[in-house]
Design goal:
- It is built from 2 helices and no strands.
- It is mainly alpha-helical and 82 residues long.
- It has a domain of 51 residues.
């Protein structure tokens, strides 16, 4: 997904490492960030309902993604500095 292309390292470590350990990567990440927060809020709620549904097309892909993340933040901060 091009949304978190820059955060590919974090995403890979969290997605691959969530079933790695039983506490932080397995339990906490899966139940809170990966499982609860990410799926219910970011991936589940925000991404599907807001990001992919409304925010993604109107704000994320349209405004935020191109103007801020890909346009400003991505090129100037992530890809620019790093």
């Amino acid at each position: 997904m091009r949304v978190i292309k820059c955060v590919g390292g974090m995403r890979r470590n969290k997605c691959e490492g969530r079933m790695r350990r039983n506490t932080w990567e397995g339990g906490m990440r899966r139940n809170t960030w990966e499982g609860g927060m990410r799926r219910n809020t970011w991936e589940g709620g925000m991404r599907r309902n807001t990001c992919e549904g409304g925010m993604r097309r109107n704000t994320w892909e349209g405004g935020m993604r191109r103007n801020t993340w890909e346009g400003g933040m991505r090129r100037n901060t992530w890809e620019g500095r790093m």
